[in-house]
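Query structure, 95 tokens:
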């Protein structure tokens, strides 16, 4: 979860679409947490198989935003290939 300070423009729906179009990004969620006369503080959640934080930061900066902090990180490792065969598992051979 990124804590981002951004100008009022672009609106959060356009910002979300821009971030979702980045390579390796599959899902973007943005929620408004504070608003003042010139800026908005938003919480940005980005999910995908290969999210590059440097690319995200660059795109946010191009739109006038700045990452204040990274407040939450989730990492998962996906197993590829065949599942582990335990003692009770059987192999099925195809002819």
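Result returned for the query:
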């Amino acid at each position: 979860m990124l804590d981002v300070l951004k100008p009022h423009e672009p609106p959060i729906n356009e910002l979300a679409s821009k971030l979702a179009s980045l390579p390796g990004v599959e899902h973007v969620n943005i929620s408004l947490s504070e608003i003042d006369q010139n800026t908005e503080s938003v919480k940005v959640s980005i999910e995908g198989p290969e999210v590059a934080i440097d690319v995200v930061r660059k795109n946010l900066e191009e739109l006038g935003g700045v990452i204040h902090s990274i407040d939450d990180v989730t990492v998962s490792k996906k197993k590829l290939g065949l599942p582990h065969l335990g003692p009770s598992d059987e192999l099925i051979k195809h002819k």
